[in-house]
Structures are given as structure tokens and as C-alpha cells.
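Loading example: each entry is read as two labelled lines plus one structure line.
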Amino acid sequence: MAAADVRDMLDLPAEGQPRPHKKQKVVEKRPEGITRELYALLGERAPPIAINENRYKGRPKWMSKLRVRPWRMAPFTNEARSDGLVLRHWQRQGDTAKPALEGPETEGEEQKQDEDAPQTPDQEYLFAKYNVKARVPRRYTDEEYNRHLKSDDWSRQETDYLMDLVEEYDLRWVVIADRYDFQPHPVDAETNSSALVPANQVRTMEHMKARYYFVAASMLALEHPPSEMSEAEFDLHEKMMKFEPERERARKELAALQLERTADAVREEGVLLEELKRITANEQNFIAERRELYSRLEVPISVGNTTMYQSSQGLSQLLQTLLQADKSKKRRSILGPEGAAPSPAAQTPAPNANARDSRGETPSNAPAAPTNKKAAAAAAANKEAQQNIRTLTPSEEARYGVQHHDRLAPGVQFRSDRAQKLTQAKSNVQTQKLAAALAELEVPLRLVMPTERVCKEFEKLIHSVNLLLDARKVAEKVESEIRVLEAAKQERERKAKEAKEKEKPEVKTEQDDNPAPTADVATESTGAASAALHSAEGQAETAGGTENKEVEAGSGDTGEATARESTSQKRSASVLSNTSDKSTKRQKK
Amino acid sequence: MNPSIPPSTAEYGGDEVSAIVLDPGFSTTRAGFAGEDTPKSLIPTYYGKYTSEGQERLIFSDDVFVTPRPGLSVHNPMGRDGIVENWDMAEKVWEYSFTSRLTGPRPGNPFQNGLNDIADGELPTEMEGVETEEKPLADSPLLMSECGWNPAKAREKTMEIAMEKWGTPAFYLARNGVLAAFASGKASALVVDVGASNISVTPVHDGMILKRGVQHSPLGGDYISSQIRALLKTNTPQPITITPHYLISSKTAVDAGQPSQAKYKTFPPEKAPDASYRTLLEERTLSEFKECVVQVWPGPNKLSATGPNGISNEEVAKSNPGRPFEFPDGYNQVFGLDRYRVVESLFDAKAAIPDPESPFPSPTQAQTVPELIKNALNGVDVDIRPHLLANVVVTGASSLLHGFTDRLNQELMQTYPGPRVRISAPGNTAERKFGSWIGGSILASLGTFHQMWISKKEYEEHGPTIVEKRCK
């Protein structure tokens, strides 16, 4: 009876781990150089000593098949030399053209070349090609020198000497400056050594460079006038002409200073550099984080209409379609591309149930009615659990950021979005005005830090800005009415005057009746308008206060108050306008 | 292949033409075939001279040390400043260095070896051709090294010897600073060469020395020996005299600090070797002492300075365990602080142990290693100074003093806190000892170098002055 059967009978779970395999007998190979009998005595566990014969590592087998290639001492000449010096080196026989380090050749060729002369003239020495000289400008002729290159500072001899050195040391300025040792008129100096020896100027590298570049550039320009130069040549010419020895000297002085800094200076510099690095790294970090945040905020902007997904029904529909798409994809991948499309009738119920289940599990989707009993039970359990939960004090709530909402909009949304929605008025003009007001207050259109409190304050601010805008609209309207009325009044007065002049006694009664109330109305309305303006100003001030985040608790109240006031004014204004309308009508009569 | 691109580092650009590299120094002369990693022939530059049977005889190589012949005097053809003084003997010593081990003795003139005696009246025909065959270097190009301040006269003389006496087909004279830089794989470096007679600092740029930066001072290995002698003279229990091995017939072991119990050999005055012989052998003991005992205070700061925690560096050095040394006569002693003091004057001239009898005048601060380096750097263009500081090559056998590179590094870091200081000193003793020879071995086995040789033809055309033009 196997163990599996016993487990089966006792209803034990299947074996957790596979049974260990049978120990495999490790048959160690008997090393060479030890007899079988002796090896048997060692037992199973051989001692950790290597038993091997002392012998050289053999050559790999394929090597023994190769034929040894003969080498011989062969003379050679070097093309980089002008004197034809013959030196001797080892060379593989029959391989004279190629150096030993290049790949092997076929044997046939080798044999053919075996009798070749040691080195035929056309075989170039391998290393001759590395004899590269720096390109130096063509030497000037006497005439050219006299015409273009004369200098007060540099004699012809010294210029020649400099050019020789430059050529000799391949433009290695460090070496040239080191070896520069010009003896003016060596012959003269020898003949009359007692005579006044001209002060041997110390030529610095900058002097030499300046002179050489001038000569080289001039020679270049003589060969090709600058207009005909190739780009590279022109660049070179420009560079050489623009060499400033003074600046170079100053640079070197600075470099020397830099080199001879004290340990303290070096340490300080290190500390400062470290600090700078830290600061820039911090800034980079901050910028990166900010960008990431913005990109997150910007992503949800979708072009499509999302209203259909705002309701729970819409959401579940979306979920269904997504699931369906998912499932069909899976199915297709299993069935292969030609897999029959499953009938929608068979498929729909399952995702529906799925969707419901998943919805039941997510607690945020509270409004979804618990249709089945399970969900109801879960809700009950939730309730019970809630009773066990201790209630938080308001300060704690504030601390943990717990918020209570009267009504939750379905789905996830950003607080900043909500705040932003406020800035969108119904009409475009209004939106622009709002934006202008916010800009004037230096409040960003998108909140920098949309916390709950800030959003609330923002809401208030937007509300008051709206009120202000309304008030302004009304004020403007009233003002224009006043203007109209005043104009009408003047007209009327003028007419009245004219009438008076024509027929004085007749119109008098009418005149006495009218003017007083209209004037009254006018003053009243102007008073109302000015009041509205004042309140608007106050509003603006409080708005400024919120922007600075020094929101007093009372500001909301004042806002409300002003709002109430302004509404009342609005009403009064409309009443007034009504009355004025009446009066004008009356006048017309 | 593009000729303007040098061979890549992995590519082997060698082409050996069985050139001989000869690196003559004050203490030893190194010679060997180019392409090998150590010189095959290493002989002391000292040679012995004595008269026997009315004839003056010379002893070269290690044989000098072996037998105290009567009247044997020891000489050195090189001057203390590294420039040859006695050209005849220098030629002989150098020739010995390569003929003894490398080229082998030449077969004598077949007309004169007695085997081919010609009948009288018959003139020897090809005498001229035979004569060239006799010259020791007839088929090996020769690369020789010289110090950076070798005067033009000496260079021409060297070339003359090589061409006319040795008959080399091609010759080149390279600065040993450059060669040491090549040995550590650098074309630009600041080479600090601590030799037997000299410390030299050579700035090398693109394989050429910068003459205005070359500095040297006599504080070499022999100076350290003189400092040790001064120390031994003023040793506290009793002054120590160095008795070389050849003067000791037997000795018994004694405790540390106890007077030696040895039997001495005595030479009657007419049979005794010259005093210079004894000095040379004492020098051998001293170099053993340098190898075993002497240590450079590793820094930071001088030995006489006070450390950061208020303890003077001397106290710290004292607390380090001492090192015992047994002299040939059996006297032995443990050397504590003293072993630091003898080399401190390489870095701090004030720390020199005064000794009026020493042939070396007390050093000046300008002769110390950090000052030499400073002066060398001030002599070159400011643009390459940081690069040189990042490539300081330490070579020369005396630089093998324990802790020398550490101290040098500390000193340089203190003097130049800004730029990066990097010392490259091979840990391998042979590479340090034969730095410039190895560089020569590399150089003379490069395929691209073969265009640089001064050939016999060129020498004949231009005379010895060509060496100034070609070996820049």
C-alpha cells in the first residue's frame, strides 16, 4: 500500500512535497595514475587531495598537426628614413610582405614565396606609415617677408628660427617654448664679445604663438585670398588672426593662481560646490515633482462627453462593455483568430452579475441599491461595525481630513476640478470677466494647493466675484437709465420753457406735478448705485483677503451680508427702474 | 589602416631588431637586449685597479667586491653629478657590460690568432673588412640613456664612442627621464628619479624633456649612506664602526647593544687594498641597512612637526616597533626613531644629521624632493602642470626606501591641494630599479622607433653634432 492510498483513505491532503529521490550512487571516476585496488581502499569519500601526475600541459591536438613555420633573420629598410639604414629582424620565411602579427596564410602561397628575396623594394615597412608630420605653412620668400611679415619686434632671423623650431617640434608649443634659445647674430657675438650684447628678450610662449599665427595666417592668406578659402581654411585663418597674446597671458596667470590655491580655499570651494549641487538637485526634484503633479492633473481632460458615465447606471454600462471587450479578447486569444463570435445573449448575464458583485465590494459606490440579500446583509454588518467605530471629534476630523458630504457625486473627481468648474460661467463673456477679476486679484485660475479649506474659500470668492459682477451690471444699467432720464428731463425742461414762453398759464399745473418726483427718484437711484459700488469695493477687499489666505472667520458672513444687501439693492434698483419707467410713460402721456 | 591613427593599445607595435639598451648609472650599469623585461647584464659602474707584476690591471663587474687584492683601488668613471668624467674607463666599463653577457667575446682576428699564419711577404688582404668585424657591436643598434642635464660635449663623446669604438650600425641617445616615463606607459609625466648619486626631477612632455624644468640635487642613495654613517658615529650606547665582511674572519653572536666579539683579519700595509675598496664594501653593508631598517616618515607633515592630536610625530615614530640590524662583525641593535631620521633630510633640509667629515655638504631646502618638484613645475608651462602632477612617476632604486612614495604623496598633496596628485610607482622592485632601462627596452623594440636611429651613414655625413639635432 502506497502512502498516497493511505492519504486517500484518511482524507488527508495530497503530499505537500515530493518524496526525496532515491539516493543516486555517485560513481566517481578513478583518476589516472592510481591502481584500482588502491582506489578501492579509499572508500566512498575520497580524500580532498588531488592525485595527478606531475607533467606539462600538453598542446591541443590540432596544434600538433600544424607544420612549424620557419622564421629567419631578415634585413629590412625603413621608408621613413632617408639614409637607407638596414636593420635586421626576425621574419616568417616566405611571409616577407606581411609582418608576423598578421593572420596566417595558406601554405601554398608560402612555398611559392619561399625563395623570394628578403625584401623587394615595393614592400613597404609596416611602421613607415606612422611617420606623420604636422602641416606647417610654406616658407615665405624674401619678398613676401618684406612685404607682409615685417615686424618691429621680430627680426627676420628670429622669425626663421621660430619657424624652424615649430617645424622641428611639430607645433608642440610647450616644448618649443622650453627649447627656445635664440642667439641674435651668433657670429657677431663671437667676434666682438666685449661689445654691448643686445638684451636677450625673453620670449614667452604667447609671443611665439602670436608671431607664428600671424605668419601662418598671412601665408595662408597669400596662398588663397580669404574670399577663396575653403571653410576649414577660413576658420583656421580666423582663429589664427584672432589670437590675443594678452588674453592668453592673463588666462595663464589665472590658471597659475588656481593651481596654487591654499588648502583652505580648495576646501571652501569644495563645500560651495557641494552646496550648489545640493541646491540644484533639490530644485530639479521640485520641478520634476511639480511637473508630474501637473501631468496627473491634466490627464483626465477627456474630449468625449462623460455625462453618460456620471450616473451609476452609466457606469455599470461602461463596466459591462469593458468586461465584454476584455472577455472577447481573451476568448479570441484562446480560440484563435477564427474563433466563432459568442452570442451576446449567452454572454450578457455573466458580466452583469460580475459587475454587480464588484460594485457591491467597492464601498465608495454606496448609492448602488443592494439588490440581493447578500449585499443587504453586508450593509447591515457594516452598520453594526460602524456602531463600534468611535466617533471623531471635530478637531480630529480636521486633522485626519475626514469630510462629510451631503451628496456624493458618483465616480472619482478632483477637488480642483470642482473648484475650476466654478470659474466657468454660462456665457463666455461672463467667464472672461471672472477670469479677469481673478487675474486682478492675482489668484491663479487653477488653484495651487486645492485643499478643502482653500476650495471652500475659493468657492466663496467666486461667489462674491459673481455678485460683484452682477452688482456692477445693475449699477451700469441704473447709471445709463439715470443718464437717459436726465437727458429726458433736460429735454422736457427745455420744451417746458419753450412752452412757457409760448403759453405760460396753460401748462403750469402739469409742470408743478412732475419734476419733484423724478428728481427724487434720480437721487434715490444714484444713491443706490453708489451704495452698490461701495459694497462691491468692500467685496473686492475681502476677496483680496482670501487670496492672501488670511481669511477671517467673519469674511463669509460679510460676504453673505453684502450679497443680501446687493440683492436688496438689485430689487430696489429694479423697483426704481420700474418707477422711472412709469414716470417716463407718464411724461409721454 | 589610417596612418594618422597610432596603433591601438592592444595592438603590438613591436619589431625587434636585436638592439642593445645600455643604461649607465652612477652605481650600476644596466645593459640588455631591447624587448626583454629586465637587463640581462647588471654590473657595478665601479671598477677596480691594481698593479700586478708591474702591469696595471682592471677588474670589472662583481669581481670587484670579491678579492681584496693588494693595492686594489676602486674608482668610478662617472662624476657625482651623473656626467662621465673619465671617458676611457667609462668606455671600458660600458663595453664590459654588454660584451660580458650579451654579445660575447668576438672571435679574434683570424690573421692574428696564430692559426692562419701567413708566409712573410704576403700582405693581409682584407684588413679593413676584418677590422669592422672586430668591433663589439657591429650588428646591434645601441640605445643609450643619459641624464637630462648631460652637456652637448658629453653627448657627442658618447656618440663617438658608440660609433667609432664599438662600431654600432645605429645609435640613439635618450634621456633616462623619458625612458622611465615610457616604462610606466606615459608619454607625459613628471619623473622623480632617486638614484645613487642624484635625485632628479624631469618633466616630460610628449616624450621630450622640458629642459627648463629639469632639476637635480645630490641627495641620492649615497647621501643617505653618509647620513647613516653620521648616525652610527653618534650612536648612543657607543659609536658603531662598520667593518666590512672581508675584514672579519669569525664572529660570535652577541646580545643587542653589546660590543661585538669577532676576530678580524689584518692585512699588512703592503698587501692591504686601498681605502676606497673598504669604502665600497662598507657601502654594501649600508645599502643592506637601507633596505632592512631605514624608513621614511610617511607623513603627513614633517617628522619634527606635531600631529593633529598634539602628539609630536617623533613620539609617534618612537612608539613604532624598532627594527634590528646586525652588522658584519656581529654587533646588533634595534633602531627606533633613528631609522626615520636618516632620510628625513630628503624632505626637510633642517633635519639633516650634521657630520663635518661627510663629503656631502649639508643640504639646502632647495635640494629636497618637494622643492625640486616645485621648481621643476615652475619651469614648465602652467597648462601642463596639473597633467604632470597627475602623472608623477617615481623610479630609481633609492626610491624603494620604505614609505618614500607615501611621504612624497603627502608632501605633494600639501603643496598642491587643488589639482589631482597621482603617483605611479611600480611595486615591482625590478621595475623600480631598472625603470629607465625598461623604458629603453620598450622604445628600442618599437617598430615606429626604427626611423629615429642615427645610422652610421648619417654619423659619417654630419659628425657627432648630429646627436644634438636628432636626440632632442
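The domain at 220-362 of chain B is CATH 3.90.640.10 (Actin; Chain A, domain 4).
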